Amino acid sequence: MTDEPEHIGSKQADTQFKPGQSGNPAGRPKGARNKLGEAFVEALHADFTAHGVAAIEKVRIERPQDYVKVIASLLPKQVEIKDDAFGDLSDEQLVAIITAARSTLQVLGEGGEGTTDAPVAQSTGHLPPVH
Fold first, then answer.
1. Which of 23, 26, 35, 87 shows the greatest Cβ crowding within 10 Å of its Cβ?
2. pLDDT at residue 110 above 70?
3. Exposed/middle/buried for 6, CB within 10 Å: 0-12, 13-18, 19+?
4. Residue 68 included in any domain
5. Shared-domain flag, residues 92 and 109
6. Mean pLDDT over residues 53-60, rounded?
7. Which residues of 47-73 are buried (b: 16+ CB within 10 A; e: fewer)?
8. How many secondary structure helices (H) and strands (E) does the chain include?
């Protein structure tokens, strides 16, 4: 016989903690992990409230490349562009949308807010060329 404990070379017979039992039943106090993060965010918020607008303006003028980097970092990493936005519409529905848009442009043009020479689509379903 050897003097080696019986758990060497095989699964330990008696574990320190039973299943479902924690070594720290009280656990970490709520918020303990976040105190530093919360303090940092509060300090950053106070500083931004006092100096943020001026700092942003200064960076925009003196370091435009960094200004653009900050803006880019705030944008989503992936933008999904749907190629087929009108793919599920019938030709008649598309004609109705274009006709309504052209009519609106024509009304705006008559009101002095702009002009348009674009002809309005006829009910034939054929569209005049778009320029």
1. 35
2. yes
3. exposed
4. yes
5. yes
6. 95
7. eeeeeeeeeeeebeeeeeeebeeeeee
8. 3, 0
pLDDT level of residue 117 (50, 70, 90 thresholds): low
The structural domain count of the chain equals 2
Last residue of a domain, one of 26, 54, 74: 74
Which SS3 state, helix, strand or coil, does residue 20 take? coil
- Write the DSSP assignment of 67-126 as a string of letters: HHHHHHHHS-S-----TTTTTTS-HHHHHHHHHHHHHHHHHHHHTTS----PPPPPTTSP
* 99 burial type by CB count under 10 A (0-12 exposed, 13-18 middle, 19+ buried): middle
Same domain, 41 and 61: yes
Query: Any idea of the CA torsion for 86, 91, 96, 98, to the nearest 10 degrees?
Result: 60
- Prediction pTM value: 0.35
Q: Tell me what the mean pLDDT of segment 16-28 comes to.
A: 72
Q: What is the DSSP letter of 52?
A: H
- Print the domain residue range for 53: 35-74
63 has a pLDDT exceeding 90? yes
